[in-house]
Amino acid sequence: MAGKRDLTRLHAERMLGPDDLASAAQRLMPDLDGLPEVSQGTAKVSRERMSRWWEKSGAKPDLRKILLDSVTDDVTAYQGNIENAIGFLRLPIGIAGPLRVNGLAAKGDFLIPLATTEAALVASYHRGCRVLTSAGGCSTLVLYENVNRAPAFVFKTTSEACQFVVWAMSMFEEFERIAATTTSHGKLVDIGCTVEGNHVYLNFEFTTGDASGQNMVTLATQAICDQIMATAPVTPLRFYVESNLSGDKKASARAYHSTRGKKVTAEAIIPAELVAKLLHTTPKAMVEYWQMSAIGGVLSGTIGVHGHFANGLAALYLATGQDAACVAESATGVTRFEVTEDGNLYATVTLPGIMIGTVGGGTGLPSQKACLELMGLAGAGKARALSEVCAALLLAGELSIIAALCAGHFSRAHRKLARTGKS
């Protein structure tokens, strides 16, 4: 067995290839010869500008035909959602469900559009939806919601930092008033603070109505920070509107233990007969696998313990116009299975922070709005319901994947569905 020294040597040889060290070093140096022109970008979306880019690019005409010419959409509808636009990406959309959801915000049977290129994904979630619906649906509720932005302030000394904190904590009502001037949908609901030497991190928590809200809270926080710099009794040397403390677009222990977005839980009791009929296993076998996988998650250092939240989230986010990068922070949480006293399966998922909305961002684009309308969850007043449906979908996915793994069907399903019609 090769040791670390041998592995390092092998990797070095693979990186260098036929080059010696001097030649490899030269290849990594800046190259200023024949620099291409990089034009100033544009946020305007029009067929004229898109065509201009294709003409200048020298790219193959058949690529333009696929990405632009064959698209019939009114391209101006995408203004404000893209820069340097050249065309459109098409993804297949599949349907899972109907999924019965018995939530405080979502009550009914929902068809769920999932956009993905991963074979077996829609089939797996559809199977889980079938199980949950056959059991009478799952119970869901939003436990808490907020979206935070965490500006940072730099002072000369810790003493100045502490004076600033005392003042800032007394200014909540004023900060709340300032935030309200930037949005009619968002509301500042709390402030927290962290002091590190002469640095102060404030954590502003907002509700954002039916929007996912990242831009909303950024603009509100900027306005508050501008007022702080103008009126604070101890003026910071400098500030940053986001300090990387908020957990925006990354998995973080802080967001996991509190909330960023909407904290949602879903649960169901699945009769043993349904587990046998539709999942081809038993509650006991599923719990045994879940127990081992939970330890596996702990050993690997994951934030939370679950099977594949990111699969369902990414597919639903793409279909409904969510910020797909937020999967990084939203796909944390806990799945738990137990055998009830009656021998049935108790299954639950809890997600500490789903970033999701039904207005703003990409939710108003033609395809994405159509997917939300297909669910009956487009527009104002539907964000909490969408988050509950999302949690129910992820519970369906956990039931299906864990059943496949404990029954030994996981590889077979991928072999069957991923290779059909392909060489």
Automatic annotation (TrEMBL):
CDD domains: HMG-CoA_reductase_classI. InterPro entries: HMG_CoA_Rdtase, HMG_CoA_Rdtase_cat_sf, HMG_CoA_Rdtase_CS, HMG_CoA_Rdtase_eu_arc, HMG_CoA_Rdtase_NAD(P)-bd_sf, HMG_CoA_Rdtase_sub-bd_dom_sf. Its EC number is 1.1.1.34. One of its GO terms (biological process) is coenzyme A metabolic process. Signal peptide: none annotated. Keywords: NADP, Oxidoreductase. Pfam families: HMG-CoA_red. Belongs to the HMG-CoA reductase family. This is hydroxymethylglutaryl-CoA reductase (NADPH). It comes from Luteolibacter pohnpeiensis.
